[in-house]
Specification:
The structure holds 2 protein chains of 2 kinds.
Chain A (H helix, E strand, L loop, with lengths): L6 H21 L16 H20 L13 H21 L1 H15 L5 H22 L14
Chain B lengths: L1 H11 L2 H19 L4 H13 L4 H26 L8 H12 L3 H36 L3 H14 L8 H15 L2 E2 L6 E2 L13 H22 L24 H16 L5 H15 L11 H25 L5 H12 L8 H4 L1 H16 L1 H15 L4 H20 L4 H17 L5 H24 L4 H6 L2 H27 L1
Antiparallel strand pairs in B: 1-2
Helix pairs in contact in B: 1-15, 2-3, 2-4, 2-16, 3-4, 3-13, 3-17, 4-5, 4-6, 4-12, 4-15, 4-16, 5-6, 5-12, 6-10, 6-12, 6-15, 7-19, 7-21, 8-19, 9-17, 9-18, 10-11, 10-12, 11-12, 12-13
The chains are: A mainly alpha, B mainly alpha.
């Protein structure tokens, strides 16, 4: 049983679940208005795609063998989770703190997590990068970015 | 035609455009040389800047980046055996052994010359073939034929997944399905909102592109850093170009490889990486020095480089003339042009010939500008490549955020990019090709729109009669079906044999 449900078959099952969610949404779809001039209903094309997706997922499930190479995530799993959280926090802070400040904080945290400990080195690098991005996009190109609390300082 | 060429020439040779083009060439070389970034990231990073430029300057920047980033990828392939772009993988097979022997400047000289010749030949092919293709497409460019053409392009993507085409097809379908979220292009009805109104406008292109390229790359690099995968650097501060006498017996290889690149570049879905390896293996079979391939043979470098740079022009032929991107970079070029109000496709050559001729001319100039750019980049590269990985990755994350936010100004796109990045990282980890996902996503709306139009044109006719009324459509659908079904049968046969 363990051999039957190898990694590739589990992925195929995940694909089928995603396809199932789309299919459910397609089958329960109620059009907002009735337009008789339309030959294809809004869900016709997506429904064909979903059936094709489910069919290919089934083919993948049937033909899937035990993977030849094992993907070893044991050493990197924690790092991926932490970096995802760091990037997520940075993206969350971006509209609150503005681009330069949020970038500066993100870079300090990211550098420290990646093993750069010397504050005399990482603070100037983070400051320089944050300033460079602010200068290029906001000062030079005049692109409107969320200013967050920086707006309080004019 | 001559009036349009003259207008394009005067536009392309304005000082502002030339400066922007040179910046694009140097920038493309640098980004291409940085391992893991590549053409797509270079184009994506440039996109926010292009939004501030005039359309011709924006095209110049994109053409500069597009025409030089593959060459840039070969620099890291030669010097640290880490191809900056997947297309440069074959270059490292002979370039790195040469560099280890202390011949890095010579190897880069061969690489630069072959790249420029391949690129220029592809530009000539682009100028010769694109108008004919465009004329043909205007003659046979109804919604049914376009649907057939898009289907053929989509069916080709199965070849992007060597070894398991089913994965390629699944990814292509995933891209098509992703593109159906939000507004229906014909009726405007909302679909697949899954309880959130933020999806009403669909998932924008930028979060998809930035998620599957730079952000996924950050996760891949973090994973690799933890797995202690490192490379030994080789020092190189200059380029030594080969003497004319050194080309004796290698010219045939140069031209053959260039034409392989152009030919395979025109076919949607074949991709630069596959074409480069086809060229490399052909040269290995036909070269009198074939036994030395893989040990530092310039013929191997010529085959790989001439081919991978010739693809730039080849891949632009279906992209500009038919609106069908053959690879992710051209899919991005297509999307970038759309952002500037230029709609690539069957009508572009007729409606906006100046844009097409400007693309040809700018790509030719970009290839010539590779010579001065290569001197600058090789000097810079030695220093940039030594940036600590955290600094490089931090820069990529900030570029990604800016790249997602600027085009739409919608904050919802930012977390979407992160989610797509994580999914793409997982897909890459488990050997799912990501390129078909992007091609499917870019072509999806066009496919649905043309299918809807074809359905209206069909009227009361039966589907068989309607398709049969256009011989070209029959051929295109037959080819598409063949491309699509072949890998499935092949996979079944392999399974039953085992």
């Amino acid at each position: 049983m363990q051999h039957f449900f190898n990694r590739n078959r589990v992925i195929a099952l995940c694909f089928m679940v995603v396809g199932g969610a789309f299919l459910f949404s397609a089958l329960t779809f109620e059009p907002g208005f009735q337009d008789d001039s339309l030959v294809m209903s809004p869900m016709a094309y997506p429904t064909w795609l979903i059936y094709a997706w489910l069919f290919m997922s089934l083919i993948y499930f049937i033909t899937a063998k035990k993977p030849a190479k094992q993907v070893d995530l044991s050493q990197s799993k924690k790092a991926i989770v932490v970096v995802t959280l760091l990037i997520g926090t940075y993206f969350f802070l971006f509209p609150i703190l503005g681009l330069p400040l949020s970038s500066f904080i993100f870079l300090i945290a990211f550098f420290m997590y990646e093993g750069m400990r010397d504050l005399k080195v990482i603070i100037p690098i983070a400051l320089l990068i944050a300033f460079l991005f602010w200068f290029i996009f906001e000062a030079l190109l005049k692109i409107s970015m969320p200013r967050g609390i920086l707006a309080l300082f004019g | 035609m001559f009036n349009e060429i003259a207008t394009s020439l005067s536009m392309s040779f304005s000082p502002e455009v030339l400066i922007v083009l040179f910046i694009g060439v140097v920038f493309g070389c640098i980004i291409g040389a940085l391992p893991g970034l590549g053409t797509c990231v270079a184009i994506v990073v440039c996109l926010p800047f292009t939004l501030q430029l005039e359309p011709i300057s924006a095209i110049a920047l994109l053409m500069g980046v597009y025409g030089s980033s593959i060459y840039g990828g070969s620099i890291s392939a030669v010097l640290i055996n880490t191809p900056g772009t997947p297309q440069s993988a074959a270059t490292g097979m002979d370039g790195y052994p040469m560099a280890k022997k202390g011949e890095a400047p010579q190897a880069l000289g061969w690489v630069t010359t072959a790249s420029i010749v391949g690129g220029l030949l592809s530009c000539i092919a682009l100028m010769v073939a694109a108008p004919q293709l465009a004329q043909l497409s205007l003659k046979y460019g109804g919604p049914l034929e376009i649907t057939g053409l898009i289907c053929m392009g989509l069916a080709c993507i199965s070849s992007l997944s060597e070894g398991n085409q089913i994965k390629g097809i699944l990814m292509g379908l995933g891209g098509l399905l992703l593109a159906t979220i939000g507004n229906d292009p014909v009726s405007g009805e909302m679909r697949f909102l899954f309880g959130t109104e933020n999806l009403a406008g669909g998932i924008s292109l930028m979060p998809v592109v930035i998620g599957i390229f730079p952000l996924a790359e950050v996760f891949v690099r973090i994973h690799e850093l933890r797995a202690q995968k490192t490379a030994t650097p080789v020092r190189c501060k200059k380029i030594i170009f080969p003497k004319l006498s050194a080309w004796k017996g290698r010219i045939t290889n140069l031209f053959r490889s260039s034409f392989i690149g152009i030919g395979l570049g025109i076919l949607p879905g074949v991709g630069a990486t596959a074409s480069t390896f086809v060229s490399y293996t052909t040269a290995k079979k036909l070269s009198p020095r074939g036994d030395r391939f893989g040990k530092g043979e310039p013929d191997g470098l010529i085959a790989a480089e001439a081919s991978n740079n010739a693809i730039t022009g080849g891949a632009l032929i279906p992209t500009l003339a038919l609106g069908i991107p053959g690879e992710p970079a051209t899919a991005l070029m297509l999307a970038s042009m759309t952002l500037h109000g230029i709609v690539p496709g069957v009508r572009l050559m007729a409606d906006n010939p100046t844009v097409v001729y400007s693309c040809f001319i700018l790509l030719i100039i970009a290839n010539i500008l590779l010579i001065p750019a290569s001197y600058i980049v090789v000097r810079l590269f030695g220093k940039i490549i030594n940036f600590p990985p955290p600094v490089l990755l931090g820069l990529i994350v900030i570029c990604s955020l800016v790249g997602v936010y600027i085009p739409s100004g919608v904050f919802f796109d930012v977390p979407v990019a992160l989610v797509i990045g994580l999914v793409a990282f997982g897909m890459r980890l488990y050997d799912f090709p990501i390129t078909p996902l992007l091609i499917g996503y870019v072509l999806g709306p066009q496919l649905e729109f043309n299918m809807s139009q074809a359905a209206i044109y069909k009227g009361n006719m039966s589907l068989v009669h309607y398709i049969g009324s256009s011989p070209l459509a029959v051929v295109l659908f037959a080819i598409a079906a063949m491309f699509l079904l072949m890998p499935i049968f092949k996979s079944f046969l392999q399974t039953t044999k085992k």
